[in-house]
Amino acid sequence: MVAGQPTDVYQQDQSDDGEPKGTAGKPMLNVLQHADIGNTVAVVTRYFGGTKLGAGGLVRAYTRSVSEALKSAKLTLVQITVPGTLCLPYSQLDSFEHWLQSTNITIADRQFDEAVTLTLQIPVDEVRQVREKTAHSGAEFNCESESP
Length: 148
Fold this sequence. Notes:
CATH architecture of the largest domain: 2-Layer Sandwich
Shape: rod-shaped
Largest sheet: 4 strands, antiparallel
Strand content: 15-25%
Radius of gyration: 24 Å
Number of helices: 4
CATH topology of the largest domain: Ribosomal Protein S5, domain 2
Number of strands: 4
Structural class: alpha+beta
């Protein structure tokens, strides 16, 4: 399994569950790691059919099973976002909306009062970019993320 980001080795694990050591879990995890996908669990059930595969045969069988499953899997990109608000003068609205279109940031809501308040869904890795963009603009940015 790869629970979380594909590069986070601390959220990966494997088990041979009764098979000879290193013949099931490790080859399956290796396929998932090389596929560069996260939040994935691979479970292969092997029914004994009377033929002894040997260690090499088991490794090939488990590796191929996971590889074939990934070929037919429908993958979905999931982007972790945090909510944020951007309060800005009306004169800056067009400029900020144009800039936001070039990012992966989504405007969830707009409130028009003395100033414009945009409620945003911001990918975690873009919070710093929004902070930098608003730092000297006269806009006020608040985000629930503690990311730098």
